[in-house]
Amino acid sequence: MSYSKYLKEANFIGGSWVGADSGDTIDVTNPATGEVIGTVPACGDVETRRAIDAAAEAFDGLAGMPLMERVGLLWKLHDALMDNQKSLAELLTVEMGKPMAEAMGEIGIGAQYVRWFAEEVRRAKGEIVPAPSNGRRFLVTKHPVGVVGMITPWNFPSSMLARKIAPALAVGCTVVAKPATATPYSGLAWGALAEEVGYPKGAVNVLTGSARKIGGAIMDDPRVRKVTFTGSTEVGKELIRQSADTVKKLSMELGGNAPFLVFDDADVDAAVSGAMVSKFRNSGQTCVCANRIYVQDGVYDAFVEKLKIAVENLKVGDGREAGVEQGPLIDMDAVEKVEEFIADAKTKGGTVVTGGSRHGNGHSFFEPTIVTEATQDMKFAKEEIFGPLAPVFRFTDEDDAIAWANDTDFGLASYAYTRDIGRIFKLNEKLQYGMIGINSGLITTVEAPFGGVKESGLGKEGGSQGLEDYQDVKYTAVDF
Ligand SMILES: NC(=O)C1=CN([C@@H]2O[C@H](COP(=O)(O)OP(=O)(O)OC[C@H]3O[C@@H](n4cnc5c(N)ncnc54)[C@H](OP(=O)(O)O)[C@@H]3O)[C@@H](O)[C@H]2O)C=CC1
Ligand SMILES: O=C(O)CCCC(=O)O
CA torsion angle for 394, 396, 401, 402 (degrees, to 10)? Predict the structure, then answer.
């Protein structure tokens, strides 16, 4: 199959494809079938330090490369992604399970991130700040932070690296990346692409293996000046603690618990379409997925009826089959977690109006599910579901809905459907979230800063802010 071009069973360190020193490997399986599709090296701290050596050595060369050469490399990277979009998407689907259409979209948005940062870096201007007296100039300039450690999850194994690697390389930082063990090939493909388009040796290094050992070596090393992580809040907090000893710059894209508010004046059909994309994209496994759907009394029944029809039309199956819209969950633990949420809701008065069970064919598939009459004491009101389960809560009063929406430690994405302009501005002020979708269930775009507040993380990815996160600001006072 064409995806085999990018199925690399070795790690990319200092410009060479290598195994673990021990020779040990880890199996990689297709969650839709359970079959082993290949192996990757089980690397640890020694190999990670070697990768950091290579990245540190490559740094001056990449940082000192003329801007238009760095931009040229990014353009080549963009073209390589688009030229190989189908084979990279197949690889992604085979290791992660998402439907091919979504995998094609993920490779496409990854390429867009590369193009965006190739454009944005040309406008990464500094400042000359007015001095208070004559004979002085105050310069504010921007510089690449240095070697960047990147740790990424399985749910968007290609695009989560795109929005970290692209700005890093754009400004001249070098990279040591550790993709998730469940989905390593889409991460290793970034090494293959960097090699293909001619990045200097050591500019991009990609390792697989023990999260604790690779992560530990990245966090301990003073040469790694920044760490960017996407994943669970629990691991993110541990990395924040570990970063203290060497005071690293951090970007943390952590968990979410997105509220999705539907007010009486909403266009109910539009709200249902928005809820479908927000809740069921990637089988509910995105950190910006609607986790709690709050619907006002006046449209509650109509919303549930239409949502049920849309959910029952979803085709579940192997992501490689034509027309499939819901792939498997990443593993059986994820299935069990969804089952626990449903069982808890049922004991507290929730009603399963569709779905609720494992899907027939034996692997980690789960039926797209709706639970109605959800309440604030149910587990999913506080915890991230990360699966195809849509809890629908009922509300009467706008202020109650906003208070419930904010009643969480997370603050990543939120959504609201309403046509009242005054309410839209009130939501903009009151919702304690880094991102708000008004009459839109799909808000991720390269042009805008993606990121959360509260325990959903630190820093932004995308937008102009997503470039600045890879730069240090330096102030130089010149007296003459
Ligand atoms: N915000 C988001 O986008 C995501 C949120 N999640 C949430 O987290 C839950 C658990 O998912 P999971 O994949 O286990 O997420 P994790 O946070 O455990 O994994 C994300 C990445 O961190 C690595 N990692 C794990 N432990 C450490 C460590 N101690 N030091 C350094 N790196 C580490 C993982 O490596 P390895 O794969 O080798 O374990 C992976 O590369 C999900 O159910 C979901 O709720 C998950 C993924 C993405
Ligand atoms: O789940 C994430 O961590 C990122 C979601 C990206 C997207 O919305 O496409």
Answer: 170
Interface predicted TM-score (ipTM) of this complex, two decimals: 0.96
Whether 457 is in the pocket of ligand 1, judged by its Cβ within 6 Å, is: no
Distance CA(393)–CA(268), nearest Å, equals: 15
Q: What is the pTM of this model?
A: 0.97
3-state secondary structure of 26: strand
The domains of the chain are located at 11-254+456-479, 258-438
Ligand 1 atom 37, closest CA? 180
Per-residue pLDDT of the chain (480 residues; tens, 9 = 90+): 578 889 999 999 999 999 999 999 999 999 999 999 999 999 999 999 999 999 999 999 999 999 999 999 999 999 999 999 999 999 999 999 999 999 999 999 999 999 999 999 999 999 999 999 999 999 999 999 999 999 999 999 999 999 999 999 999 999 999 999 999 999 999 999 999 999 999 999 999 999 999 999 999 999 999 999 999 999 999 999 999 999 999 999 999 999 999 999 999 999 999 999 999 999 999 999 999 999 999 999 999 999 999 999 999 999 999 999 999 999 999 999 999 999 999 999 999 999 999 997 668 999 999 999 999 999 999 999 999 999 999 999 999 999 999 999 999 999 999 999 999 999 999 999 999 999 999 999 999 999 999 999 999 999 999 999 999 999 999 999
User: Atom 23 in ligand 1: which residue has the minimum CA distance?
Assistant: 211
Nearest ligand 1 atom to the CA of 253 is 1
Fold exhibited by the domain 258-438: Aldehyde Dehydrogenase; Chain A, domain 2 (3.40.309)
Classify residue 120 by burial, with Cβ atoms within 10 Å: 0-12, 13-18, 19+: buried
Using the atom order of ligand 2, give the atom closest to the CA of residue 155. Answer: 1
Which among 1, 327, 11 is positioned nearest to 185, based on CA atoms?
11
Residues with CB under 6 A from ligand 2: 155-156, 230, 253, 286-288, 444
- Ligand 1 atom 27: the closest Cα is on which residue? 211
211 lines ligand 1 (CB under 6 A): yes
Residue with the smallest CA separation from ligand 1 atom 9 is: 232
Ligand nearest to the CA of 336: 1
- Domain 11-254+456-479 fold: Aldehyde Dehydrogenase; Chain A, domain 1 (3.40.605)
CA of 253 to the centre of ligand 2 (A): 9
Taking the CA of 289 as reference, the closest ligand is 2
- What is the C-alpha radius of gyration for the chain, rounded to an integer number of angstroms? 23
